[in-house]
## 1
Amino acid sequence: MHKYRTHNCNELNLKNNNEKIILSGWVNKKRDHGNLLFIDLRDNYGLTQCVVDKNKNFFSKLEKLQLETVIKIEGKVVERSKDTINSELKTGQIEVKIESFEILGECKELPMPIFTDQEYSEELRLKYRFLDLRRKKIHENIILRSKVIEFIRTEMTKYGFLEFQTPILTSSSPEGARDFLVPSRLNPGKFYALPQAPQQFKQLIMVAGFDKYFQIAPCFRDEDARADRSPGEFYQLDLEMSFIEQEDVFEVVEKLFVNIFKKFSNKKLKYEKFPQIKYEDAMLYYGTDKPDLRNPLIISDLTNVFKRDDVKFEIFKKLVNSGSLVRAILTKNTKDKPRSFFDGIDKWAKEQGASGLAYFTFEKNNNISAKGPVGKLFSEESLKEIMKITKAEIGDSIFFSCGKINDLENIISLARDKIGKELGIINEDEFAFCWIVDYPMFEEDKSTKKIKFSHNPFSMPQGDINKIDYNNPLNIKAYQYDIVCNGVELSSGAIRNHIPELMYKLFSIAGYEKNEVDQKFSGMINALSYGAPPHGGIAPGIDRIVMLLANEKNIREVTMFPMNQNAEDLMMNAPSEVSPNQLKELNLALNKKK
């Protein structure tokens, strides 16, 4: 017989009735009924109710046990009476009569209880993360994460992909977020960088002649924390394929995601063939390139309406004449909504830093008119034009805002989400995936007015490469794409530029000299000169996938040992100071700010 257990704490049932068994685990909960003491024993797998009567000589010792003490019990399985069956537990039809027990691991007074999902401060939870991870909900999230990764590995192997590991110590990249730097002892004054992603290495794998690669890759970026992004490090499903086009990547990823989300969630998939939305359309109709397609609300452009003479909304007209735009959200059949609903949305917009949201409702008595604070500023003809543009009907309402493009897109996108939630029209029981495609290759830096890469500098431009209009770089589209689910961006990807001369040309538009490209991307540019296949890929975030499946709002809830908002590990006291000897070995000296 095994020393510590014959069964796990989720296994025993009526088939084990009258069996002598051994269980080991944590004391999850105690209930003292005077003559009987009930103990819920917990391990990784589940719970078993154990019971001891007062006649046992070890009763008082068990009674005094601190919760979360690790014990081994030996006892006999007995059937519960019908009125005490717990249908929520796999072991709910039986209990174990304790005949002896042994303490395996003492427990000090707990800084927080384990058997509840009550919220505690981030500082407390992260300092005692090993305790936090014992709690049922987050424990199950981490198990879910493991199962999802295992499933991904199995599926990718089925699809013909090979798993390779790429280097962790590499060179610093000038693109993207800040690097984490690692000083080299053997090369004084030089530094490695932890990879922001295996981008260059996975392309080199394709150049090396391997056809399909994947990896559950650790990535390191010195970024500020967000709800959907861990500071410091995260994991992604990194994949790359040779001799493919954009649609080939979509086919693999769609098949994988449909299988993942069907297996690990009871929610429905809105689309099994994911819609493809052009970037410029996404920004127009949703105000963002991360649209939540569960929300049926669509944004319309009303800028030209405010150039009409019969529109008397002078504030917006002046803004439009100075280059601002007007965007609107139509809400169907909201004529009976109280004034407080509309004013609440306007107040919310002001709290977001906007000037508010104007609104009115379409009415018809003898003529078409608009009910609301600014409704009287629109003629019947202008209202008809708005109805035509927005596909509005009598009884519908519109919210609209005016501003410069970036500020306007931000507030109107947030307003679309807010109004959708207020109206209760977002289906929380489904996943709505989509692809955002046709990203611009370049964009203008708002502060310097210089041209820079908008997405990924290694992407292939669209169209005939011999006919690209380099004189109008902002018109160049790239084979770049994002996959989005329920308003969460899961990944960016691209068909790669595998032609060195074309790469030099595109980098020159962004202000890079040829020698700079050779220096900063030496491994990549050199490899592409030795016969590179057309290739492309993508890298969906593991943390975000699991966050969606677990129905969590914060990525911390699906990450085993996350850092806090200041990129600190409170449990391990990292980052920490190092000794003078360590600095000396690395030829480093600190210049601390006063």
## 2
Amino acid sequence: MVNPFREKLVEALKESKLITEEQLKQVLAIHKKEGGNLANIIVKEGLVKEQDLIVLLSSSLNLPVLSLSRFKIDPELIKLIPEKLAKQYRLIPVSAMGNNLTVCMADPLNIFAIDDIKALTSYNIEPVISTEKEIAEAIHNYYGTEATQLANILKEVKETDENEPLEVATIEEEVVDIEQAQKQSKVTPIVKVVNLMLTEALENRASDIHVEPEEANLRVRYRIDGALREAFTLPKKDQNAVLTRLKIMSGLDITEWRIPQDGRFRIRMRDKEVDFRVSVLPTNHGGKVVMRALDKSSLSIGLDKLGYLPEPLEGFKKAVAKPYGMILVTGPTGSGKSTTLYSIINQLNTPEKNIVTIEDPVEYQMEGITQIQANPEIKLTFASGLRSILRQTPDIVLIGEIRDFETADIAIKASLTGQLLLSTLHTNDACGAITRLVDMGVEPFLVASSLIVAAAQRLCRKVCPNCKEPHEVTDSVIKRLGIEVKKNTVFYRGKGCNKCNGSGYFGRMGTLEILLIDEEIREMIIKKKSSDEIKEYAISKGMKTLRDNAFQKTVMGLTTIEEVLRITTEE
């Protein structure tokens, strides 16, 4: 049977010349072999950007494009179409006017879907177009148990007078009625909204919750597998009550809205305790709150369960077994450095060892370990704190980050006098850690003597096991990868399903590049050889780079080529 949507898309692509005839033949061949949505295949192959494709379809079909992530849907409308039908036809109702129902569809030419919805709702159906991914996220956000609870709670806190215009001014010096905000923050619907926000975030495996005041509302987003996703919005009138509630829970000053504040709180959910680290930042429209979920249970799983390949993991374990010296883990913010270091000290945490940490801030609170919160306001910096720690005869010391010469100098000297010292640096690769320390002013011979191992780490998303499928990768993508690929190699991707919210990914794992410091590398450091020369030597001795390790995970079917290109730089 002819697919009108596919035929229209092919026709539009030919006319627009966004892709060549040869590329079109390739994607049609993939579509014939694998099935699925032709538009999705074109986007995943990297031939056309998703937004460009939607604009093209909109022009060709003469239908408006709707960005669902910026659109708030009335929960009452959701009740018109059952969740099963919405998922089946990849659509969601967005507005109703008179006898007309506007429905956002991934395939607006699906006559069967339009007829079924028309018969079910008794409305005339007016289709608009959006991406399949946005529709899947909207279905997840508006349907289901948590979404239904949220809809009912939001109904409770809805503005009483619908006809009253919303007056919003640019907030320069907002006058907050503290007593009123505190009273409102204890009102049952507000408490329910905040509780549901936290539980829904944890149910969806969110690492962060962003509560963001905007000009006309309060937006809530969750960071899941490293990407922010829209959760819901609240009326502007409830902003102060919600933010005050979060401040009270975090033990912060509810009378102060002009300066940044940091706090934390703990919740128990299904016999599991989760800490939340809270940051409040004053913005143009009020205080933005970001809460990071810190699940202590993830630290007890050990290095073996963090997703590393056996070869780099073996090198890491050898370094950790050393009685003294320095171990550095490098990578950008959010690459899992702290979790790796905490997992190490959790394994080394025995009654015979004195383990002390100095952090800014203390992320995970752990029993049996002395943890110090750095506070520059009272001159408790990493450097001054480390000096005091060394008088406490520690066996293992963890420094949150080496930021300056003074901290680096004391840390290196400590590692040379009998302590195992662990810390982090912000560099692109493992060899860059050596250059960074020397650039800070540390003598090369001290770096050579103290450093046991430098590791570079990234987090890559795992292919969703529920919708995993073989996937052909074009020659142009393989060329960009810069790695020799065997002819029979099978690559995988996630098609997108309910479990992964249409993203094709579920969960993340660590990817590690390990530079073990041998005698030759020590000589190279003393002679001030460049990081490129050290890297070249290490690779000749068998070191696998971040890209090599990430690609190996692709060959094993654990992640995708797109993720390899995203998390690693050109070698």
## 3
Amino acid sequence: MAGGKLTPRQKMINLMYLVFIAMLALNMSKEVLSAFGLMNEKFDSSNTASITNNKKLLDAIDQKGTENAGLYGPAKKAADKIAAVSKGFYDYVETLKADAKFGVEVDKESGKLPYEAMDKGPRIDDTWFAGDGYSAKGTAIVAAINKYVADMKAAAASEPSLASKLTPLIKDLEVRFNTADIKDHEGITKKFLEYHFAHFPAIASLAKLTAWQNDVKKAEFDTYNALLGGAAVSAASMKNYTALVVLEKSAYFQGEAVKGKVVLGRYDENTKPTSFQGPGKIENGQAVISMTAGSIGEQNINGQFTFMEDGKSVPLKFEGKYVVIPRPNSANISADKMNVVYRGLPNPMTISFAGIGDNNVTASAPGLTKAGKPGAYNLNPASGESVTVSVTGKMSDGKTVADKKTFRIKGIPAPQAAIGGTPGSQKGAKSRLQSSTITAVLPDFLYDLKFQVTQFVLKVPGQASIVVNGDKIDAKCAAALGRATKGDQITISDVKTKIIGDGNGIQTKTASPAIFEIQ
């Protein structure tokens, strides 16, 4: 219409056409504005119903958590946190809706907002944005959204046993309230609030904010349902059951047939018997057996629980067997490595009395110390040819038993020199010997000792011996090796070492030689 030279009549026709288009757009805008208003009403109605339904769900969780803390306690704690976070953000969004309704009043007759008059949103444009970015209020709104998502995520993860049930819901919430920049249909990147609210009609912004509140209530509803279902699934989970081995008796002779069964048992703090008959009494909902063992041999133990079910007493009988054995009169003393102990090393030992707890067993010997777990000791003898370990055990009736055992003390044997980690004799090129590290090993020894070579002597046939400080072939050795010929046997001898780690400070014996034949 703008191309070429137009006659006055054509210009008039074009102007009338533009006016007609504008009138159509104006009528369409009113319909759209009314549609946004109706949408806002539906969201408002849905939110009102959600508040009621969510409260009922929360009350149900609270009641179950109070009645059965063991099962629903974690769900109650998580739900209370989610309720507080949801209410806080819901109420905050309600305050933002005042900006969308700024300057308009509810119609007294219809009780509704004048949707068709809410075609502009100056209040939001003026207070949420500044230039190309956010104002202080706009920044605070984005921060509040991000905090809501973070707080919901933290509340969902606060009870580890139920967190996995809420993970998909939190991921959906992160998508719904993602405040990252957005590309519009023209490919232009806009800030989150700008994309959703800048230059929008007030009624459209109002509907959007009410939709946010609807998302909040939906997330709250979904999490409550997941918590209730998760708690029920957790209660029925096989993780709450224990496989119990129930044998006919608790002691057997060597070669005797062992008979019994394996059953699934569940410990529930809310399942408490009303009475108990047997060798013991009820304490904290459990039957604690207290009795004196009978004569030596097989004995019986039996009784009955009584539970209330549907107002009736339900008896549950039990029966078992146990075997009485003689009192211990000797200690079990053994060296974990062998029947001798090595001087200067923390020789691990297990010391116990059959039938007596570790707290009632006392062991003593020169260099003997506790190793941190029941029955575990370290014996580090210093001098002499033998050491005696004495043990005393205190039985439950107050009587004591004692025993002792003597061990031989030996020194650490001499290690073997090794070239490139290989002890004894080997063959190879001179270059391999020159690049190898001289080490020392103690094959087939019960302790994993680490040796550091401090000095050795290298001897090339027909040449003077070379003393080397350290564990590497030096320049003098390299020169001597340069004059060696094929078939010459190079001897590494007089190898001095020291121990690193356990045994540090022990004077070691000279290592046996190593031979390297030049190829």
## 4
Amino acid sequence: MKKFLLSAIMVLPMAVMAQYKSQVWCPDNGDGTYTNPVINADYSDPDVCVGASGEDYYLTASSFQCVPGLPILHSKDLVNWEIVSYALTELYEGDEQMVKHFSTPRHGDGVWAPSIRYHDGWYYIYWGDPDFGVYMVKTQNPEGKWEPPVCVIRGKGYIDTTPLWDDDGRCYLVNGWANSRARFASVLTVRELSADGTKAIGQPVIVFDGNGTENRTCEGPKFYKREGWYWIMCPAGGVPTGFQLAMRSKSPYGPYEAKQVLWQGKTNINGPHQGGWVHTKYGEDWFLHFQDKECYGRVVHLQPVDWSSGWPMMGKKGEPVTTYKKPKSSSSVVVNPVESDEFDDPVMGKQWEWHANYDEKFGVPTAFGTFRIYNYQLSPEFVNFWEVPNLMLQKTPADKFTATAKLRLTSKAENQMGGIIMMGLDYSALVVKRVGREFQLQLVTCRAADKGKPQTVNTLATLKPTAEDQIDYKPGIHLDIYMRMVVRDGKCRFAYSLDGKKYKEAGDEFTMREGKWIGAKIGFVSVEPAAKTDRGWVEADWFRVTP
């Protein structure tokens, strides 16, 4: 039946296939209004640009060490978004040494606070890698293949970069600085780049200094020009508690006068800041920014912008809105970033990322309507899953949801294991592990994984194999199982079923925790201890996100 449905689906128009509507969070209220967040998932440090048509909007966000990197989301109205591609297939394509460096998890490193721009027929993304420098990728089709990254400025400490092509064709770059690498921060610098944006031709100039003021932690700058003024829009005041600044000057090198244009006020939207401004073909102005929701990561809000005072006042007189009328648009499509996956396509779904540069031995789609994730061989010094690169994960899609997976575990040897995981600085995973000729159902939990703390294992049940290979040559044993995680307000509970109908709770409630600069992520784990036997694997039949 599944294969029949796949054949039927393949003849449907692509537009219909693309219109995925989430069961757990849809910001479009269906009455001409929307409710924030417009993306209730961890798209940290978002930036947006208007595409060539004037009615296509493209958004990207920080992806750090996760691969593929630099997600590209598309919208026709700034409310309904879908994942259409990634700008980076790996970190960093074309540089063998860098590709090798990111072949193991480098939590919190990699792609920080990108900017996306459309200029002269090309789409550009710039970002700062705090350890290696300023990088850029470009394309003429943001939903397709992007060119390999170019290192524009080499060095440590550069973050949060945005280019501005001026009316005379000259190009400028603004950036912030990472205190963890540069040993200073809260300053913004501007320099000139070559006209093609590929290299620095000028020296940096400090144009704003937030040190010793309420504008501490000024970072994440975005560069614009409007009606003869150069504008830098940036957050300040700290991530969870800060606000949005706008600053203007008649010269790209300043001096700039600054004004707060968005703050929490009496709302429950904390630290509203760091994002991108767009002016639409309909004459409207909007600002997309993040809100830090701790274990859920940094979710994306949309605010109206009013320029009548000469400053871009955001939200309602500077306070963020929760529900508001939608931007003008010719589109009525309701679509959300995809979450569920039937694994019927011959490519990995766009919601999934690995925790390091991809190796084909991590896992591959199959012709059987499944995705196979091979066991990753743990190091002899193994302490916890923080070292595992083949965690196949996606962002949490809402404050409350249920994620259920149908799996087959195939084991070729003792102690091979796999299952589902809620991954962060603290993590918890429901796995089955081969012990002898049977499987043990285990709840594996670790607190302070990033600090090298050991995980704890709670064995919940012993399960007989569903099937066994009846051959002498490298036989495997198999277990069919349904695994579930139920998330409610930062808490997670696991459950399992052997028939997909009756579920039994598995272990204690787990308090979720964010990862290194990212929200907690959900998905699959498949590992084995150091051994010389053939790999086992997890075969995922489907993964469904429901209320």
